Amino acid sequence: AAASGDPAYATATFVTGGANTEAQGNFALFSDWTGAIDLTLKWNSLSAASGDVVCQVQFGCTATGEVPTSISFNNTVFTATANQTSPTAAFNVSTKTGITTTGCAAGEQAFFIIHRDTDTSGDTLDQAVELLSVDFVYRRTITIGG
User: How far apart are CA 30 and CA 47, in angstroms?
Assistant: First the structure.
């Protein structure tokens, strides 16, 4: 709970120490989506530690009439660099361009899973991480005129 006068906000907590933690969601792709998708994560750690966090984003899609439980997810790995030394709990922004979207098409429902990969040597922030927001940028083809 937030202290009196402090803002309260929802987070997904990614623990450390080899545990597998993830956040999931979905959104509809525009009917004129062109295929490029970029990701921005906003996150923090409530410690004064510094280090890197390794994340994975898995992405898959279903069309009308397809079953979401049969999605074949693509996987993209990237390192989210942290500098938590000052001030503690400051927001960090990490981006990944060009997420793999093999098997997705315009007009489909896009599903994503975001993992923290604490089992890799590149994840050096030995603290829990709070995921504050997930933003996707995806492009449309716009035709002007007849």
Answer: 40
Q: Name the 3-class secondary structure at 68.
A: helix
Distance of CA 16 to the CA centre of its chain: 17
Residue 40, token pair as written in the block: 């921005």
Query: With contact defined as beta carbons under 8 Å apart, do 32 and 105 qualify?
Result: no
Sequence-distant (≥ 6) Cβ neighbours of residue 20 within 8 angstroms? 115
Distances in Å between the alpha carbon of 126 and those of 21, 93, 133, 143?
Answer: 14, 18, 21, 49
Give residue-wise pLDDT tens across range 115-136. Answer: 888 888 888 888 888 898 999 9
- Residue range 132-145, pLDDT digits in tens: 899 999 988 877 87
Residues whose CB is less than 8 angstroms from the CB of residue 146 and which lie 6 or more positions away in sequence, other chains included: none
Rounded to 5°, the CA angle 73-78-83 comes to 140
